[in-house]
Give the backbone structure.
Amino acid sequence: MSDLVKPDRPDANLVLEFDFDAPPAKVWRAVTIPALRERWLPDCDLARAEPESSIPGEEVRYRLRDSEPPFRESHVTFRIEPHEDGSTRLRIIQQACDITTELPRPANTNCRLMRAAA
């Protein structure tokens, strides 16, 4: 068993698209105002409550963290694209972070360092 958790392929994006019969400003508020965002994307699912980056009215990016080990992290980007008729397309792009996480070692491991300490 390896002590390293291999990251998900960083080039493998999950892309979801939704069309809303609402103006872009309303969709923007739903993804950026914490009280509104909390209803469908709770702070406990975020690595940080503040966005990593933002282009007002167009795109906001958050960092997500799994709630269970190995606590993988990913980036989720919300892109807002207005339609000519006043409706909105929301594109959600989730991408795994390109990091390798080391799992904690058990206290009874037989690695060299622990054998030397005994």
Q: What stands out?
A: The CA atoms of residues 41 and 76 lie 11 Å apart.
